[in-house]
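Quick one, tokens below. Sequence please?
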């Protein structure tokens, strides 16, 4: 029997981020631990529900009854499987709550998400950080796996114009389960998740073994897509490669330098530190993840309501405001900031309040060009 070409020491020291801790994420995390990976970052914003139990090996009924955070549960179960495990958790949204500096520490990222938008956000972070990532998708007894690598294959480029317009479309696993149950079908998510999750981990381990890949002793799915049809027990591999040189989404953020700025710093303090670092007063902090909104105004009468929150939180904030109840977002205009400099009127706000997560990389613009600084941990 042929010996494995995987190195246990490389696997043990590898740093892997898994985004999404649902059915697919459970399988991926379990397989990573069984293969000997000891450094994992788990990202998810959701809680365990009863509907998760039929397809998620790491969750129990007690977890669902207590509505425990998925990241807390998987961290506990992985350490139980291997006490030497180091599991860091991020309870949040990949679009806003995962710092680019954290992604830069990874050897590979594995996406176990259920929407084009989430994949788009993973891709953007990985391309900026220069880190490869493995995507998986499941539906019924069908599944796909793909690999994206900076300089070779970009998820955003593969979407095309129509796909980019459709980023908001989302069919989570729970929706698939409900659809199957309504049709009187037995959910098959757990079966296909085990197949695709295994392929994802196998591809991730290949990416960790870069010398083996470059020497041709291993072959990656980069530039291709594995399609699995469990209903008819067929598989095929199709070309799935696109890399447009003009795509801004895979523009690498380099070089990244450390700085003394922290998420707890006020805007005024952050700008002062950056000015010292760059030896110029002409410093602008670009909010590349989201905007900051200070007020919304009704389109019918210009009546203003103060909100003071990142753009992603506007809908939640306005829903609690009695004067805006019943007014759709389309009936509101939001006053937003996407660039922050010394003219920004809310200098006392912290960078965290602007919506920047820990370990993030700051995009700083000056008259001399653009610079990238990784924040210190608070």
């Amino acid at each position: 029997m042929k010996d494995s070409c995987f190195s246990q020491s490389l696997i043990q020291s590898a740093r892997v981020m898994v985004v999404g801790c649902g059915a697919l994420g459970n399988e991926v995390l379990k397989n990573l631990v069984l293969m000997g990976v000891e450094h994992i970052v788990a990202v998810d914003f959701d809680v365990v529900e009863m509907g998760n139990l039929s397809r998620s090996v790491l969750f129990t009924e007690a977890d669902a009854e207590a509505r425990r955070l998925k990241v807390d549960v998987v961290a506990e179960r992985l350490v139980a499987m291997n006490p030497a495990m180091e599991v860091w958790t991020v309870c949040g949204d990949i679009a806003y709550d995962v710092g680019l500096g954290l992604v830069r520490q990874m050897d590979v990222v594995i996406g176990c998400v259920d929407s084009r938008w989430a994949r788009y956000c993973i891709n953007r972070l990985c391309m900026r950080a220069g880190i490869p990532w493995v995507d998986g998708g499941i539906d019924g007894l069908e599944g796909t796996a793909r690999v994206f690598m900076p300089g070779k294959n970009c998820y955003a480029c593969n979407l095309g114009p129509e796909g980019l317009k459709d980023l908001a479309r989302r069919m989570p696993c729970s929706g698939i389960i409900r659809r199957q149950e309504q049709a009187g079908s037995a959910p098959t998510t757990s079966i296909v998740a085990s197949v695709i999750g295994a392929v994802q981990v196998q591809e991730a381990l290949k990416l960790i073994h870069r010398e083996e890949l470059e020497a041709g002793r291993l072959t990656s799915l980069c530039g291709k897509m594995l399609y699995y049809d469990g209903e008819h027990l067929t598989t095929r591999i199709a070309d799935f490669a696109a890399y447009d040189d003009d795509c801004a989404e895979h523009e690498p953020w380099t070089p990244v330098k450390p700085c003394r700025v922290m998420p707890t710093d006020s805007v005024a303090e952050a700008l002062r530190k950056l000015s010292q670092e760059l030896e110029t007063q002409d410093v602008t902090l670009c909010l590349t993840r989201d905007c900051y909104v200070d007020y919304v105004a009704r389109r019918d009468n210009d009546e203003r309501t103060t909100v003071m929150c990142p753009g992603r939180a506007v809908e939640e904030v306005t829903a609690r405001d009695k004067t805006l109840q019943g007014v759709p977002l389309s009936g509101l205009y939001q006053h937003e900031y996407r660039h922050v400099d010394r003219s920004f009127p809310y200098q006392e706000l912290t960078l965290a309040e602007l919506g920047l997560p820990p370990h993030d990389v700051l995009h700083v613009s000056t008259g001399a060009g653009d610079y990238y600084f990784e924040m210190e941990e608070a």
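Residues 170-177 have pLDDT under 50 and may be disordered. Residues 124 and 156 are 8 Å apart (CA to CA).
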